[in-house]
Amino acid sequence: MGSLTSKNALVTGSTSGIGLAIARAFAAEGANITINGLGDPGEIEKERVAIEADFGVQCRYSGANMLKGEEVTAMVQEAEKAFGSLDILVNNAGIQFVAPIEEFPDDKWEAIIRINLLAAFYAIKAALPGMKARKWGRIINTASAHALVASPFKSAYVSAKHGIAGLTKTVALEAAQHGVTVNAIAPGYVWTPLVEKQIPDTMKARNMTEEQVKNDVLLAAQPTKEFVTVEEIAALSVFLCSDAAKQITGTTLPVDGGWTAQ
Ligand code: NAD
């Protein structure tokens, strides 16, 4: 029996990267999972089937678009109905765009706030009543070191992630006496498609080569000089769902190789 047997979890943005690793780690502990995200339908179906086959749990997929509040709400309601409860919610879906603020496209700024911050509000609003009624719940928000410190050219992302840290604290206080903890994880640079994709834009914005962006921009901030792994983020997520973590709430926990210690 895994530590999350009989629990049902929803992880947004789990067709790739950190979210997929968290979903697989929860499944490995026995939780049924709703995965969500964009991508090639065939690839997503392969991931869904693999989770069921590898861990002997039920896994369903929601194609809800995190840009749209009503789709987020429906996703949570459907997940709760399908498995009979929603015990663990991970707000992880996120996008990035890098540009000086004077040139930042309005639609990109708004999309980052919608996906990285507003979607978490809609999902928490829909999920919390059931968690409170059952007197047990875990909400984890994937924030970022950029929830604690800023970097140039990332105004939308830094604003959204600082917002997530505030949302985490506020909901933690509201849920504190209901058996529900609310925390954010603040990774430094994790090697995922999101990081890989921002390299060309950073090269352009800073007039640098790929090697310079990796060493002088990305890992420049990370004293260990190593990328964080998705498995390390997933392991902390599993711990936050344990009973041993029940007094940890309202926090934004850095997993950043020492970045925010500086
Ligand atoms: P990723 O690009 O690998 O995964 C992002 C996920 O979000 C994918 O499943 C994608 O389909 C989904 N997504 C994007 N837009 C969506 C939409 N409109 N509707 C539904 N799903 C959508 O990136 P990742 O690095 O795994 O990022 C996951 C989270 O971790 C993000 O919130 C990101 O800000 C955060 N984070 C990442 C790093 C890093 O270095 N990779 C560092 C700190 C924080």
Question: Your description of this structure?
Answer:
- It comes from Mesorhizobium retamae.
- The protein has eight helices and seven strands; from the N terminus they run βαβαβαβαβαβαααβ.
- By secondary structure, the protein is α/β, with parallel strands linked by helices.
- Helix 1 (17-28) packs across helix 8 (230-240) and helix 3 (69-83) runs parallel beside helix 4.
- It is globular, with a radius of gyration of 18 Å.
- 45% of the residues are buried.
- Bound molecules: nicotinamide-adenine-dinucleotide.
- The site of nicotinamide-adenine-dinucleotide has 29 residues, from helix 1, helix 4 and helix 6.
- Nicotinamide-adenine-dinucleotide (NAD) binds next to helix 1, helix 4 and helix 6.
**CATH homologous group name of the largest domain:** NAD(P)-binding Rossmann-like Domain
Mean pLDDT: 96
Shape: globular
End-to-end C-alpha gap: 41 Å
Q: What's the architecture of the largest domain in CATH terms?
A: 3-Layer(aba) Sandwich
Report the portion of residues in β strands.
5-15%
Total DSSP helices: 8
Question: Regions with pLDDT < 50 over 5+ consecutive residues?
Answer: none
The SSE order reads EHEHEHEHEHEHHHE
What spatial order of strands do you see in the largest sheet?
3-2-1-4-5-6-7
Q: Would you state the CATH class of the largest domain?
A: Alpha Beta
Protein name: 3-hydroxybutyrate dehydrogenase
GO molecular function: 3-hydroxybutyrate dehydrogenase activity
Organism: Mesorhizobium retamae
Family: Belongs to the short-chain dehydrogenases/reductases (SDR) family.
